Amino acid sequence: MRIVQICSEAVPFAKTGGLADVAGALSKALADLGHDVTLILPLYSRFIAKCGVDVQPVGEPFEIPLGKQRVLIRLKRTQMPGSSVTVVFVDQPEFFDRDGVYQDPITKADYPDNAERFMAFNRAALEAVARLELKPDVIHAHDWQTGLVMALLEGQFRDWVPDLRRTAAIFTLHNMAFQGAYPSATMPLTGLGWEYFTWTRMECWNRVNLLKAGIVFADQLSTVSPTYSREIQTPEFGHGLDGVLHDRTADLTGILNGIDPQEWSPAADSHLPARYDFDALETGKATCKRTLQERLNLPVRGDVPLLSMVSRMTWQKGFDLIGACASRLLERDVQLVFLGNGQPEYEDLCRHLASAHPHKVRAVVGYDETLSHLIEAGSDMFLMPSKFEPCGLNQMYSMAYGTPPIVRATGGLADSVVGATPETLNDGTATGFVFRDHDPDQFWQQLDWALKLFADQPVWRRLQRAGMSRDWSWNRSAREYVALYEKALTRRVS
Ligand code: ADP
Q1: Of 245, 319, 321, 471, which is the most buried if we count CB atoms within 10 A?
Q2: Phi, psi (5° rounding) for residue 40?
């Protein structure tokens, strides 16, 4: 199949979260299955310059309309490192030559022209597909940043470009909390007529809603875990679009993400001071723990349970539960490490815990790829008490690194972690700790239970090994995406 992925971020070029991991790894996994994959991204020149890839111009420059303006677009091309994926960049320096992807990294405010930036990117991406004659069987777009692709394809490009008439349009929802909702005055920037600004199309609460455009106009929809695909059809998780999703329930599939073994495998991780696998778990992991403690200036002790969290610091991730359980937890002999950044109140919470417990807690506020790998490897337990979690990657990294996660049963956490109970410990299926409700006492019960089990090292080893021996690779998920593409193509052709 000829597959075009259109996304606003992808590893290794630009990353703000799990979306980038998925776009990069899924593209590579599809190419590994023998498909012809092109990934279209904005050219964030400041990040991409650091990747050491050779980026060359391709095709002629062209202009696209954006409301009353015309915007000059150049296309650039490179090869995804270690893969046959072709990457096409949309080069528009005024929009993408910035220090952040969506936000100013200093003020943490969204760029005020994000509607213009991503609407222009969506049109330019489809122009690139047409001008480079990619003739795709499938166009696969991701999240609000590329939702307009689905509407432009259906409303304009299928008519203009005969090669796109039978192209299957797939849209993946990675997080319903971010919708790209802009004032109605931005509608002319889409290049679509006002007849598209209706409740059945892309209007929601009198705003242009780009996520909704993706949901309404795609042939098939997917989201990143089976549980999340059910959750988002309810008011609690649908963020106002549950009704729209409910109407499309027959076309909505949940496919759990995988992890990229080139990036996230303890046996091959170049960020680690020692590599380890299933068989050499004890020594390698102990070295990583010692290095982590040394690097963070914590007491170097193998016996103390080291709990950690690597996360965007937002309300989604359950930091209120961390705050509610911290004093009980820190009465115990434990160490606690945070890496992340985001909302100031949660950054402050972590900093405060670190200053109040200098021998036990460290808070690294910032973004640090190498440290995130060392934390996964050097910790004993990983915390993810999320309010909601479409898929979540860190719990899978943790299990692959022999670091049982403690998670709330929501979205992909519910689909990937088997909670330790006497039964699951007995039959060897337990891989972590799971609590049901967003409730401090339930979280604390699992923390307490995890600390008890940690004291019984033979039992703990079994738990670690169960997580490490599961197949977390993209191979499985990529095959499920291919089945979804085939389903959409069959419908288009018939
Ligand atoms: P989300 O996409 O909601 O942020 P995921 O668990 O799906 O959550 O993915 C988060 C990704 O971002 C993981 O790869 C995680 O390691 C990484 N990450 C988050 N915060 C940081 C940070 N401060 N430093 C390094 N990596 C981070």
Answers
A1: 319
A2: -110, 125
User: For 50, which DSSP code?
Assistant: G
Say how many domains are in the chain.
2
Tell whether ligand 1 has an atom less than 6 A from the beta carbon of residue 318: no
Range of the domain at 99: 2-258+475-493
**3-state DSSP assignment of residue 255:** coil
CB 190 within 8 A of CB 196: yes
Q: How far is the CA of 392 from the centre of ligand 1 (A)?
A: 9
> pLDDT tens digits, residue range 234-272?
999 999 999 999 999 999 999 999 988 888 999 999 999
Mutational pocket test of ligand 1: of 311, 339, 373, 416, the residue with most ligand atoms within 8 Å of the beta carbon: 311
Cα of 313 from ligand 1 centre, angstroms: 10
pTM flag (> 0.70): yes
DSSP helix/strand/coil, 77: strand
Please report where in the chains the tokens 């979306």 appear, as a residue. 19
Q: pLDDT band for position 86 (50/70/90)?
A: very high
Decide: 315 in ligand 1 pocket, CB within 6 A: no
**Cα distances (Å, whole numbers) of residue 380 to 251, 450, 494:** 40, 10, 53
Mean pLDDT of 334-339: 98
Same domain, 341 and 396: yes
